[in-house]
Amino acid sequence: MRTQFQPPTSTQTPRAAWYTQGDSVLPPPLLGAETVSPFSNGGAVQWPDAVGYREAVQNPQTSLAPPELRTGAVSLDRRGLPVAYSGRFAVVFRVVETGGTQWAVRCFTAAPQDEVIPRTDRYRLIASHVSELGDMFVPFKYFEQGVRVGSAWYPIVAMRWASGETLGKFTDRNLHDPEALRAL
Question: Total domain count for the chain?
Fold first, then answer.
């Protein structure tokens, strides 16, 4: 049986309100793009790779739908290309608003392995649970049509940028310190 998501009530706290599907996304036609489904090969999504996303986010004004991201600038490396942090299923870019607020924009490069619950519903369910856990987790927004690559829109997760040491660097630095590793 599939779990049905119930939208949050209007009595939620401001922090809990962050854990929602983005509702400030302009429809693609308003951004100068036609809506093209990424489901072009009989149901399997044609996900962009890190290079495709990197090319798209070079111009956030036309490739990112959320207004707070569209007006920002993507962090660039010394060659002038967007800095990309790649993982197994996604690539992350740092977007800085004109006011200085920094965002992590997570772009998916593959579908979930066992998508029993569609990604949209899963993020909504996670959000409703995580919002109750306090400051341990960074609030996020899920946008079903968040980034345009070519003529198709793809989902993104946007959250405030959390600076700090990566898990890999921490582990490397504390490889011979079992107490530090246990404290994780």
Answer: 1
143: part of which helix (H) or strand (E)?
A: strand 140-149
pLDDT of residue 114: 67
Give a yes or no: residue 2 inside a domain: no
Residue 1 lies in a domain: no
Whether 9 maps to a domain, the answer reads no
In this structure, what token pair is assigned to residue 25?
């996304």
Confirm if 14 and 132 have CB atoms less than 8 A apart.
Answer: no
* Residue in this structure with the two tokens 């998501």, named with its chain if needed: 5
Taking the C-alpha atoms of residue 132 and residue 112, their distance in angstroms, rounded to an integer, is 25
Give pLDDT tens digits for 129-139: 877 777 777 77
pLDDT digits (tens, 9 = 90+) for 119-161: 778 887 887 787 777 777 777 888 989 999 999 999 999 999 9
The tokens of 29 are what?
């036609």
Residue 6 lies in a domain: no
The residue with tokens 């619950």 is: 117
**What six digits make up the tokens of 180?**
């530090």
Q: Are 104 and 96 in contact (CB under 8 A)?
A: no
